[in-house]
Structure formats: structure tokens, C-alpha cells
Amino acid sequence: MTTKIGIIGLGLMGGSLSLALKKSSSQYRFIGLDHNSKHCTEALSIGLVDEIVQTLDAIKACDIIFLTIPVDGIIAVANQIGTLDEACTVIDLGSTKEKISESIPENLRKNFVTAHPMTGTEKFGPTAAIDNLYEGKVVVLCDMEKSGRHQQQVAEKLFSDIGMKLVYMTAKAHDRHAAFISHMPHALSYALANAVMKQEDPESIVALAGGGFKDMSRIAKSSPNMWEDIFRQNKTNLIEAIEAFETELGQCRKMVENEEWTTLHTWMQEANTLHDIL
Amino acid sequence: MTTKIGIIGLGLMGGSLSLALKKSSSQYRFIGLDHNSKHCTEALSIGLVDEIVQTLDAIKACDIIFLTIPVDGIIAVANQIGTLDEACTVIDLGSTKEKISESIPENLRKNFVTAHPMTGTEKFGPTAAIDNLYEGKVVVLCDMEKSGRHQQQVAEKLFSDIGMKLVYMTAKAHDRHAAFISHMPHALSYALANAVMKQEDPESIVALAGGGFKDMSRIAKSSPNMWEDIFRQNKTNLIEAIEAFETELGQCRKMVENEEWTTLHTWMQEANTLHDIL
Predict the structure, then answer these.
(1) Among A97, A262, B42, B251, which residue's Cβ finds the most Cβ atoms within 10 Å?
(2) pLDDT tens by residue, B163-189
(3) Is the minimum CB–CB distance between A128 and chain B shorter than 8 Å?
């Protein structure tokens, strides 16, 4: 029997999800919805979806609906979609979770699973989709006790089928952790890119770029549409994480200014220990 | 006719250089010197060098001598090696160039070529050596007018033979550029690692690490021995680069605090433009 999977948001995340699910089973039919008509045409033509629909009502008949759009859009959809069949599972893949978890209408709360796959690339749009984006990566499942038992099982099976490692935590803990592991590092990468671009001769500087700089500036390519939204949703945690970073970098600068080389050496050794747990 | 190549410093850079040169020609004999006797044994046993010597005097008979040791060591060797045959070429691969260029005794200045290959990995020691570390990467040749014509030609040929792109600039310009493209990013990576490690539950945070965090924290594995030295040698430029970064990150934090989302969006778009030139 065919399971109908709706994907709202036909970008990197939604497109890659379709490719991964297709690899895991031939029993799915994919129905797409996106306000960007070019993305709809592309997603159809490269086979990410079997069908495009134009309205939320038209996608409500799906057994499973993925929301792979920015966080603000997820909250809007949750509040506009109306009632759902009690067997319907809606899984959002937003990058922040607490505001989403709080914003889901009470009568739909059991339908929803709020998840965050810790993966992505700096590219976007349906043509950026790749079939192994999720494989071997962590997906954080948040506030799972608020989801229906059926919905929990559906989500756990789908994420396991595409090779993900399941991690459970509260939406609140997720947002704080994600600020440190993902959102603040994006702020650093954007700031690094801008610091270099504002120098007198950025071309000559960038001509020397080795692997370290390329790695550290890669996520500065990320979509401002998506990241403005994440920074807004996770404002408080993000500021805390940036301040923790600023404290460390300020200490480093002062040790260099004051020529405290032994202390600096120890500080670098402490940083090395990250890789004992990574 | 066999060319004798001396390598002082049998780590990642020196070992990889030997592997790359061996691929480019069978006419070389490699003679190694390192104060770490374990590294000498390893380098011999995995074939990075054909012979180990114990003194600077013993390596002076080489046609070409590479200095692949930290910057302080390069300056020490330049001042301890004494006189050299006028056909001898000494090429140092130190990560900062101005202090080295200034420290070479006047009577040896034509013998020396001061170069900086913009490559590396976070690993170290002879067993970290790989034969394609230099391939396709940039090497910055500094203050080349101070090197002898013969030495210029030797260095240009060797670096071209192993597939490097040659870029010329003054040692002063190099150090400023390197502060932005390499040294400050290392400070960021160390600071990021320490900011995460000092949180209450670093293991839970790191369990969520995706590609972005792994990329940005990779160079925080780098050797404190090497990087303490680089930070010391390039102190002034490094502080300037850190301050330029701090200004950008501070602006980002304030835009988030003040909820200036449109300005933040523009700032992110500006960062995106780095990749038009990278």
C-alpha cells in the first residue's frame, strides 16, 4: 500500500529527504507544496516529488507531512492547517524547537513531531538536494512525550530508515545546545567573512586561503533568509553563546597582547581536548 | 646526478615535502635532521629520508636545505649554521615571514628563500605526512629580490614541480594577509572549542555536531607548540585581525539584541559575497 508523503518546502532539506526516503522504500508517493513556483517546477522535473499541490487543504490528505521550511513558516503552517486526521503525522525539521513546540495548536499537538536533523550544506533550492544528506547524522527529537504514540513510531521509523541516529531532548535543551553547536558558529563564519571583505585588499588576502580558512568560511555562504529567521527564534541562547565565545577570544587576544605565552599554550591545549569527545 | 636535499624538521610539512619531491623526480637523496629521535626513526623507517644526521654541520653539504620547523627554530638555525657554499639554497617554510626575513645573517641572505606554503592539516609528526599536501596549493614567496638568482630559480622549480601555485609578495604584506586568512581563524577555532568545552554539559552539545561545527573546530586540534610560536611572531597583525573580527561579531550580537533583522539580513548577504572571490 502506498503511503502519501507531503513535503512543504522543496529546498535542500525537503528535496534530500525525498531522495533518501525513495532509497529506503518504493512504497511512497511524494506530494509537494512550495510558494516558489520555480522550485515546484524543478522539484517535479528532477523527480523529487510526484505531484505538486497549491494549498494546505490539498496536502492534508497525506499520511505524513514534512515541514521543511524556515521556522517562521512552520509556525504559520501549524496555525493555518486547521484540523487533521488523528492518524496524520506532521514532522517539522526547523532549526530551533522551543517556539515551534509552544506554537502548535493544542488540538494538533499529538499530530506533530518536532525534529531537528543536524545536517545541511551551505547550498539551497531543490537542485541542491542529495540522497545522503541525512545518512549517519544525528536527528534530535524534541518534547516527544507531547506527540501521539503513533506519531512517535512513524517518525522514529522514518528517521531510522534513512540511517539517522536518534537523540531525544527537550525543545529547551535543544535550543541551548544548538546555539553553541550550530547557530553561534554560523555567526562566527559570517563575521569572519565580513572582517576579511572589509580589508583594503580582500582579493590578495583570499588568494592565500588554505583549507582552514575555507572550512571556517564555508557556512558564511548560508542563506540569509533561513539564518535571519533562526537568529530571531533563538535570540537569547544565541546571545549567550556569542558572549561565551567573545570571552574566550578576548582572553586569547589579551594573552597575546600581554605576551603570556605559557598561559596561551595551556589555553590551546585545552581547546585540543574538544577532540577527545568529538 | 643526485641532488642532496636536507630536511630540518621531520614533521607533517617536511615529511610531505619529501613524499611530493620523490613523486616529481628520482634524482633526490634526502638527509634528515630532527632533535626528536623518535621522529628520526619513524622518518627513516617509512622512507621519508634516506639518512639521518645529527648536526647542522653534517647537513650543510646538501644542495638544498628545507627548514620545516617552527619559526623560532628557523631563526635559531639561520644564526647557528655558519657559512654556506654560495650554490646552497636554504628554503624555510615558516608560517610568519617578516621576523625570519630580518633575522637571516647578511652573509647568508642570498642563500635563503623565505616561503610559506598555504597548506597543512591539524595532524603532526612524520606519520602524518601525505604525498599530495602541496599539490594545487599556493606557496607565497617573500622578499624574493633578497635571494640569489640561483636560489630563486631552484625554489621556483621545486615548488612548481610539486604542483604549487607561486605567489610573490613582501614578507610584511604576507604577515598581514596571513594574520587574516590563517592565524586569526586559528584563534577563532581554539576559542570556539574552549567556549563549548566550558559549558555545563559539553558532551551533550558535541553529540549534536554537524558538518559546520566539525569544520570550524577542526583546526582547534592544531599543535600548541607551533601556534604559540606563530602567534608570538605575528603578534601585532594577529591582534589587528582579531579586533577586526571582534568588531564584526559585536555588530552581529548587537543587531540580534536590538532585533534589527533587516540590517542583520544585509550583513549576512555581505558575508555571502566572500564566495564570489573565493
Answers:
(1) A97
(2) 999 999 999 999 999 999 999 999 999
(3) no
Which positions 134-173 of B are in contact with A (Cβ < 8 Å)? 137-138, 140, 167, 169, 173
Nearest to A243 by CA among B183, B98, B250, B52: B250
ipTM over 0.90: no
Interface check B233 vs A, CB under 8 A:
no
Does A196 reach chain B within 8 Å, measured CB to CB?
yes
Task: Give the three-class secondary structure for A263.
Answer: helix
SS (H, E, C) A151-180: HHHHHHHHHHHCCCEEEEECHHHHHHHHHH
Cβ of residue A277 closer than 8 Å to a chain B Cβ: yes
- Chain A positions in Cβ-Cβ contact with residue B12 (cut-off 8 Å): none
Which of B212, B218, B257 has the CB atom closest to A219's CB atom?
A: B212
- Give the chain B residue nearest A254 (alpha carbons): B239
Question: Count of alpha carbons within 13 Å of A80, Cβ hemisphere only?
Answer: 11
Taking only the tens place, the pLDDT of each residue in A211-222 is: 899 999 999 999
Give percent of chain B above pLDDT 90: 94
Domain ranges across chain A: 3-169, 174-277
Q: How far is CA A55 from the centre of its chain?
A: 24
Q: Is B93 on the interface with A (CB under 8 A)?
A: no
User: How distant is the Cα of B125 from the closest Cα of chain A, in angstroms?
Assistant: 16
Does the CB of A254 have a partner CB in chain B at under 8 Å?
no
| Cα A65 to Cα A47: distance, rounded to the nearest angstrom | 18
Please tell me the distance from the alpha carbon of residue B38 to that of residue B49, in angstroms, as a whole number: 14
E-only strand ranges, chain B: 3-8, 28-33, 51-52, 64-67, 89-92, 112-117, 138-142, 165-169
What CA–CA distance (Å, rounded) separates B62 from B85?
Answer: 10
Per the listing, cell 516529488 goes with A49
Q: Which CATH number fits domain A3-169: 3.30.380.10, 1.10.300.10, 1.20.1090.10, 3.40.50.720?
A: 3.40.50.720
The CATH number of domain A174-277, selected from 3.40.50.720, 1.10.3660.10, 3.10.50.40, 3.30.2350.10: 1.10.3660.10
Asked if the Cβ–Cβ distance from A210 to B181 is below 8 Å, we say yes
CA-to-CA distance for A6 and A125, rounded, in angstroms? 17
**Is there a contact between A272 and B193 if contact means CB atoms under 8 Å apart?**
yes
